[in-house]
Amino acid sequence: MPAWFENPEFWRAHFSRLFTQERLESADGEIAAIEKLVGLRPPAQVLDLCCGPGRHSVALACRGYAVTGVDLTAEYLAQAAQRAEAAGVTPQFLQRDMRSFRMADGFHLAINLFTSFGYFRAIADDAKVLSNVFRSLKSGGVFVMDLMGKEILARCFRERDWMESNGTLLLEERIVDEDWSWITNRCTFIDDDGRRDFSFSHRIYSAQELRSALLQAGFARVSIYGDLHGAPYDHRAQRLIAVAHT
Ligand SMILES: C[S@@+](CC[C@H](N)C(=O)[O-])C[C@H]1O[C@@H](n2cnc3c(N)ncnc32)[C@H](O)[C@@H]1O
């Protein structure tokens, strides 16, 4: 039985909610913020791990970086390739699983954005991903992660939300369990074609848990922020950003 993240139908059903026009357009600003946060300038080699439909890969390539986008979902990679072609850039896109993708000494920067980590039941698989990234970075390389941190989730948690978009109603119900280490989201889509259910679940990391996992993977130093502009990770933080140095 494939896991939820291996199901292309899941990503198809969630595309319009995950990747609104606003979110697609926010990618270039996020890349500008990351450049400033880590002091990176083109030309450098960048890994966009779990690149999805390529919004950051294309923004990076347009700024002159040599980009490799890695993702499991063929349909998203096809969209990424189309987006790159329309922008007149040529990032490399690879269909790979983050648990096994590794390119020794390949990159100056790796990014993993928009909660694209923690999907695996076995925590050892998360550790494998971090170790793969560590080994894929050059000496002096940096890894930037952007997650919904446990502290933020606890502050903003809602058991259920109703949403409506283009005539489709969506009910999202959430359960936190395993001592605040795991969240399960049950999504019910209701439209003229009937009703479809999808569940997705993932590990939730606190700042200190993520820092420990990155140090365990071999990174020498980890800074934590509350957004990509370097705000503190405090009671107002919007995201959990980790910047890990090799
Ligand atoms: C929430 S989306 C984020 C996409 C992108 N980082 C962005 O910000 O637009 C998560 C992505 O992770 C990909 N993904 C899920 N499991 C994966 C795996 N095991 N290996 C590689 N990619 C995976 C999905 O296909 C999806 O594109």
Q: Can you walk through the features of this model?
A:
The chain is of the alpha/beta class. The chain folds into 2 domains: 4-148 and 206-245, 3-Layer(aba) Sandwich (Rossmann fold), CATH 3.40.50; 152-201, N-terminal domain of TfIIb, CATH 2.20.25. Helices cover 33% and strands 32% of the residues. The chain is built from 7 helices and 11 strands. The strands form 2 sheets. It has a 7-stranded mixed beta sheet with strand order 3-2-1-4-5-11-10, sandwiched between helices. It has a 4-stranded antiparallel beta sheet with strand order 6-7-8-9, with no helix packed on it. Strand 2 (66-71), helix 4 and strand 3 form a beta-alpha-beta unit. S-adenosylmethionine binds at residues 5, 11, 18, 50-52, 55, 71-73, 76, 97-99, 113-116, 119.
List the helices and strands and how they pair.
Blueprint lengths: L7 H11 L2 H18 L6 E5 L5 H8 L3 E6 L2 H14 L4 E4 L11 E6 L10 H14 E11 L2 H7 L3 E6 L2 E10 L4 E10 L2 E10 L3 H10 L4 E5 L14 E6 L1
Parallel strand pairs: 1-2, 1-4, 2-3, 4-5
Antiparallel strand pairs: 5-11, 6-7, 7-8, 8-9, 10-11
